[in-house]
Amino acid sequence: MKTFSAKPADVRRSWYVIDAAGQPVGRVAVQAAVLLRGKHKAQYTPHVDTGDHVVVINAARAIFTGKKEGTKTFMRYSGFIGGHHSETVQRVRERKPEFLIEHAVKGMIPHNRLGRRIFRKLHVYGGSEHPHEAQHPVAVPKPLRRCEKTTTTL
After folding, report:
1. Which member of 12, 111, 137, 145 has the greatest number of CB atoms within 10 A?
2. Per CATH, domain 11-148 is 2.60.40.10
3. pLDDT tens digits, 137-146
4. pLDDT of residue 102 exceeding 60
């Protein structure tokens, strides 16, 4: 038996849409990262970009659990004296809601050249409209939460 290794020319890419409205940011990011990497495919190869394109809509309506909405901060530093900037989730959501999803997904993909190529296939939009209808994206179903799981009795 030989180990299968996908070639970049053999990869067929699909388009998926994830609706982030009412879902925790981390759950949306996990779904997007798995689809971007191609881990849902049988031909997944770690060193080849086998993933699909992902469109995330309603990023402005994604939620954070607990008190993270007011206490979590995003920090950046310009490299100059006094160049430290911190923002809470509320301020980031007002300024650029797409950043919340992009930042979470970026941390879940490889931090190298392959990861940068994979990240270019992520398209995040704050509202429910997106310009990728011509690609006929498939909607990814929302995962069930614990309280919504159905139980069967015998």
Report:
1. 137
2. no
3. 999 987 756 5
4. yes
